[in-house]
Amino acid sequence: MTQQVIHPMVKLQRNMQSLVESDIIKTTDSIWKIALLYGDDWQHWKRELLDFGFSMQDPIGDLLAVETWDED
């Protein structure tokens, strides 16, 4: 039996989708708004998002639209 490892960005994406479905954030909100929710962990996630080409002004919907997280 093999177990797949979920990419950390998929976990972040799922958390964001859950927050959108709960009406805590909107898909049109800027990514920087999630900084308030992640507190001390934000610097890590910000670095990850920047590495994948996101800016903090991009809408959360752009993050949710990613289908695969390939690291080249």
Automatic annotation (TrEMBL):
The record, for InterPro entries, names:
DUF4327
Protein's UniProt name: DUF4327 family protein
The lineage, from the top, is: Bacteria, Bacillati, Cyanobacteriota, Cyanophyceae, Nostocales
